[in-house]
Amino acid sequence: MRRFLILFLLILPSSYLLSQGSAGSKATFQQRFIVDMPTAGLLKSNSVSLDADFFSNGGLMLRLTASAFNRLNFGISYGGSKIIGNGNVEWYKLPGVNLKIRIIDEVKNFPAIAIGFDSQGREGYIDSLKRYDFKSPGFFVVGSKSFKFLGYSSIHGGVNYSLEKDDSDASLNYYIGFDKTIGSDLTFSVEYNFAINDNSPRALGSGKGYLNAGIRWSLGSGFTIEFNWKDILQNKEPGNSRVVKLEYIQSF
Predict the structure, then answer these.
(1) Residue 70 pLDDT more than 90?
(2) CA torsion sign, 130 to 163 to 214 to 60?
(3) How far apart are CA 10 and CA 119, in angstroms?
(4) Each residue of 49-81: b (16+ CB within 10 Å) or e?
(5) Confidence class for position 19, pLDDT limits 50, 70, 90
(6) Where is the signal peptide (predicted)?
(7) Which fold has domain 2-251?
(8) C-beta of residue 118 within 8 angstroms of C-beta of residue 38
């Protein structure tokens, strides 16, 4: 964790590319997640991103992602609960790894298609169930299609197979999402995770799925801040959660 923080402090002063960020109609970079689930969006070639998720119970998760080619992103993530506040820190059991490859670029009548793997779940880790509060995508295939209407909008649909399956009778899952720019600096996003892999008697979910929404704001110089409202349908206890995310992207 300390290495991530040191890297963040080193990158900040070197921001020479005054790019807008990944939100709004003038976004310089593609949106890589709807809220929690992946899109077909990627970092540009020779770019690096550092993301920080601040969640309940003093939680913090950092994700470092790099792109050596236009079609390939890879990265690592780590974090835990009670990092901010009192009590012993509850670190994640293992670092998360992620890889995304775009196999088809978007054209006028066909979406961009990406495949990948992401072992990083969201928010706290529950050791007794060997899972995160919100399960990791695991292996996934996702399609994203953009269109222009009063700014820009995108629709997303994906299938994923999480490796966090000890509490579930099924691991194959589906999700859909939508995002819409609001002016030059803001983007509104909403996703519905069917959570078919999180609705057994042993699981946390009650069968309603996870409805999540967020608003993203480009701050300039490659920074984007995001405010998310998760589990709006109260699929699991204790229900709604609020998450703040910071994203910093730099191209070299």
Answers:
(1) no
(2) positive
(3) 27
(4) bbbbbbbebbbbbbbbbebeeeebbbbbbbbbb
(5) low
(6) 1-19
(7) Porin (2.40.160)
(8) yes
CA distances from 245 to 83, 95, 127, 195 (A): 16, 19, 24, 23
E strand residue ranges, 151-209: 152-161, 172-182, 186-193
With a cut of 60, say whether residue 175 has pLDDT above it: yes
Please identify which residue in the block is written with the tokens 């470092």. 64
Decide: 40 and 111 in contact? Cβ < 8 Å.
yes
Q: What local confidence, expressed as pLDDT, does residue 15 receive?
A: 43
HSE, side-chain direction, 13 A CA sphere, residue 37:
37
pLDDT given for residue 27 in this prediction:
92
Tell me if 67 sits within 8 A of 42, measured CB to CB. yes
For 50, the token pair is: 């550092």
Print burial letters for 183-219: b (CB count within 10 Å at least 16), e (below 16).
Answer: eebbbebbbbbbbbbbbeeebbbeeebbbbbbebbbe
DSSP string, 37-105: SB-S--PPTTEEEEEEEEETTTEEEEEEEEEEETTEEEEEEEEEESSSSSS--EE-SS-EEEEEEEEE-
> What length does the chain have?
252
pTM: 0.89
* Distant-in-sequence, close-in-space partners of 81: CB < 8 Å, separation ≥ 6: 57, 58, 59, 89, 90, 123, 124, 125
